Amino acid sequence: MENKKKALGKGLEQLFSNERIDFNNFEQKIYETTKEEDIVSIPIEEIRSNPYQPRKNFDSEALSELSESIKVHGVVQPIIVKRSLKGYELIAGERRTKASKLAGLTTIPAIIRDFNDDEMMEIALVENIQRENLNAIEEAECYLKIINNKHITQDEIAKRFGKSRSYITNLLGILSLPDEVKEMVISKKLSMAHARNLSKLQDSNLQIELAKKVLKDGMSVRELEKIVNSENLEKKVKIKRVSNINPKYKLYEQVFSDKTGSKVSIKNNKVEVYFDSEKDLERILEILNITIE
After folding, report:
1. Which is catalytic among the residues 89, 94, 122, 253?
2. Residue 3: is its pLDDT beyond 90?
3. Per-position b or e across 42-76, b if 16+ CB within 10 A of its CB
4. Is 94 part of the annotated catalytic residue set?
5. What is the CATH number of the domain that holds 57?
């Protein structure tokens, strides 16, 4: 048992010390070090969410589909939990747990492991960034918590998650928007590209006013960008012009990156989309509505 705990501790350390963070490898290590007889059935009613779970909204349609699959095939992969004062706290498998409850199950197969509060937070953040379709605000909050908790730079977080530095910077920038505007992003009424442009402005009242105008008039990202970049509006940071890059391509890169959540490069008549795992590629294809038969 002691060796198993050491292996898991090392796995968590490697999760953040590797050049690329990969939650799948970390979770696989837990499954590989667990004997079949150590997978137990626990009451779903005694399970509560990881207190550090950043995801607040779950796709009801996707949960319904997973629930129907569970009714037919059962829970294929056990969830991972830790014991708490009252029942269990989820480490990995919140969607499986919610879908199982929706399917009418009263128990679910689980692996019980011990993690401290810091580890619980790190696990929840990484799993959600790499596996769930978070809205821009949730994703930004995840990156910020990891940066603060692990004391790493934006450059390092970008490298470890396979994102561009500008993507991380722009994403974190929208956290400074007024709550009213952030709610528009969360509800997907306002796109990440629109939010990024608004975050450049100093005046919060103007940010709200322009956000409402975008919704009312159906203003495009380019139209909003022209307004934001006008000389008479006070900016948080002076906007630097890049003369050697086609500005239209730069805008396309930003919008494409916002859409996929990955680094995108457009040059030499090619569009390059970066991904860090097969699961991440599947996520991008799903976002682009591409189905492989």
Report:
1. 94
2. no
3. bebeebeebebbbbeeeeeeebeebbeebeeeebe
4. yes
5. 3.90.1530.30
